[in-house]
């Protein structure tokens, strides 16, 4: 082997790059044999300041490893991290440290109350004291929330470059995408056929709606006029799609299974009463005591309660859509309660299907006064010029 001349640290890096071609490099396989070599230590007394030691080039493993794991804009990898969390290993945590929040900063769940960064491999313990110890519980929650950012190594990019906040919520800003996603979920659930479960519609009352809203979705959004026998079934399909459920990918399960994109919850339809069986049983047992009919209700699928507690579908969306009240409606309360995201989607779909209806869908943003004033001036100038032309 050719002798390597001694080079000063101040020499240009291109010279050392040339010299490195005569040196033996450490292979990736050798690096992977020891976890200690994932983080490069400070050079010792016998080492060159740039990482050259005894004829070896020390490879910066972090830079090559992070190039494949630090992809904050990759939504698929984001949900892969979310999917590592389970009820048994990340239980009863506040929304501030929900699996979505943890995945936003590059953490995945590796054990009970334990997180690991996919890039710097730091371990973060997330155990919390009992809730009845109010002061200590709140302090621990706050510290854990801060650790999602500060718990990384100093050179880890995740602490300053997390995934976008839009990954954590239902997108109601892009209305066309929201409509297309809804129609896609409807089409996927329809494929279940006779396996479609009977659905609990009681959650409609919590947002002061009734079953008529589902009928309007079928006729207005889907553009269908189903027969009486099929009408109720397609309404239930719309409600499940409205709540964020879709058919699971065949790669996940060959059995009839529905899943949520956000909370990664998978539910097997065999755990619920099929719609046709429930309708038949209800008609046959209308004269039976209430206690017997309640046994049938235990098998109903509740599209809202089946989500995990931190799922964005059950939380308010960042952009709240409201229906503009009519001028004569003076008794309407302007302080309307904040609705969950699934109900916001219902309002959006309803207004998109009836654009000529009074009370169009609007968001909280209003036209700037300067633009409004320019519009008034244009209208005024138009009528003034028209009046002058008529006089002449």
From TrEMBL:
It is found in: Nucleus. Residues 72-197 form the C3HC-type domain. One of its GO terms (cellular component) is nucleus. The keyword Magnesium does not apply. Keywords: Metal-binding, Nucleus, Zinc, Zinc-finger. Residues 27-40 have a biased composition (Basic and acidic residues). Pfam families: NuBaID_C (PF08600), zf-C3HC (PF07967). Residues 27-50, 353-372 are annotated as: Disordered. Residues 355-370 have a biased composition (Polar residues). It comes from the Eukaryota. GO terms for molecular function: zinc ion binding. Residues 238-351 form the NuBaID C-terminal domain. InterPro entries: NuBaID_C, NuBaID_N. Required for proper positioning of a substantial amount of TPR at the nuclear basket (NB) through interaction with TPR. This is Nuclear-interacting partner of ALK. The lineage of its organism: Eukaryota, Metazoa, Echinodermata, Eleutherozoa, Echinozoa.
């Amino acid at each position: 082997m050719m002798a390597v001349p001694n080079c000063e640290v101040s020499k240009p890096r291109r010279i050392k790059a040339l010299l490195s071609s005569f040196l033996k490099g450490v292979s990736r396989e050798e690096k992977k044999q020891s976890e200690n070599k994932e983080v490069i230590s400070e050079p010792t007394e016998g080492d060159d300041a740039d990482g050259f030691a005894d004829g070896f080039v020390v490879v910066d493993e972090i830079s090559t490893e992070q190039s494949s794991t630090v992809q904050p804009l990759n939504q698929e990898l984001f949900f892969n991290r979310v999917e590592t969390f389970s009820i048994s290993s990340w239980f009863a945590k506040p929304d501030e440290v929900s699996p979505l929040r943890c995945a936003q900063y590059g953490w995945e769940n590796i054990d009970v109350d334990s997180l690991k960064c996919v890039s710097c491999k730091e371990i973060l313990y997330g155990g919390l004291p009992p809730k009845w110890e109010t002061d200590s519980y709140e302090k621990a929650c706050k510290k854990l929330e801060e650790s999602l950012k500060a718990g990384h190594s100093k050179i880890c990019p995740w602490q300053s470059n997390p995934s976008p906040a839009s990954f954590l919520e239902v997108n109601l800003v892009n209305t066309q995408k929201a409509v297309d996603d809804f129609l896609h979920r409807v089409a996927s659930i329809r494929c279940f056929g006779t396996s479609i479960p009977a659905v609990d519609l009681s959650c409609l009352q919590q947002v002061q709606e009734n079953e008529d809203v589902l009928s309007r979705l079928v006729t207005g959004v889907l553009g269908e006029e189903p027969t009486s026998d099929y009408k109720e079934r397609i309404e239930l399909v719309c409600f499940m799609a409205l709540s964020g459920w879709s058919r699971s990918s065949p790669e996940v399960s060959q059995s009839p299974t529905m899943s949520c994109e956000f909370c990664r919850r998978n539910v097997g339809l065999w755990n619920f009463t099929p719609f046709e069986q429930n309708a038949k049983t209800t008609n046959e047992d209308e004269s039976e005591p209430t206690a017997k009919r309640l046994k049938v209700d235990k098998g109903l699928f509740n599209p809202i309660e089946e989500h995990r507690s931190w799922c964005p579908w059950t939380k308010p969306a960042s952009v709240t859509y409201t229906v503009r009240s009519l001028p004569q409606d003076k008794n309407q309360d302007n302080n309307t309660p904040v609705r969950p995201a699934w109900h916001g989607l219902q309002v959006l779909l309803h207004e998109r299907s009836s654009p000529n209806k009074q009370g169009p869908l609007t968001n909280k943003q209003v036209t700037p006064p300067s633009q409004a004033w320019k519009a008034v001036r244009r209208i005024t100038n138009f009528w003034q010029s028209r009046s002058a032309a008529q006089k002449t």
